[in-house]
Amino acid sequence: MTSIGTGYDLSVSTYSPDGRVFQVEYAQKAVDNSGTALGLRVKDGVVLAVEKIKHSRLLVPHANRRIMTAGKHIGVATAGWISDTRHLVKRVRDEARDYRSTYKVDIPAKIIAERTGMYAQAYTLYSAVRPFGVSTIIGTVDADGPQLYMIEPSGQYVGYRGCAAGKGKQVAKTEIEKLNLDQMTAREAIKEAARIIYAAHDDSKDKLFELELSWICAESNGLHTHVPQNLFDEAIQHAERSLNDDEDDDEMEGDDE
Question: Which residues form a coiled coil (predicted)?
Fold first, then answer.
């Protein structure tokens, strides 16, 4: 970063001479150092998956979840600082509750994404605050069908068919682009999401991690829930089998050379 050390990164409300806001870029770097999170929008629902890095064997299993429910039909998966995650998820819950209280219907995906994005963007405007170091993936099923949005630390929000954030996002995006999401069911997407998380995981740097999977589809009665244990186990087996097959193929190619 050419302007580091010249004072342009001391306030989020200051542009550098080349038009950059460094504190927003630092927040994005915090996201890029976090475990991978992804979302898949398929023909009958939405699937969310997160690689939750475990920094200690003493951590309680399933604690500090990175996939949370923000409304009966709204799931949120995040990559970045867990403290910022909790704050943003609380905001999403407040917006969903207020909208339903006012209009007596569930909040549409586009509106919840817009309001959350505007809230995140407000924290890039004033020197007394800092940007949220978290990318937020919001999945829901509304009147228009399955919907998937991602909100960046800058406040930018975009609708996706498939998206990823975190340290393994490039590998995840490459794998997502290979999928035929329009023809895929939520059950199939669960297995593919687990496979992608395992493929994106860097075992040399982060040995311990915990996989989180959730979905919103007809099988979950249109509600955001973590996937049933039997399906979760099948997804893990599918991911490990695919990973082992890829390693075997690499070994065979190495022997041929």
Answer: none
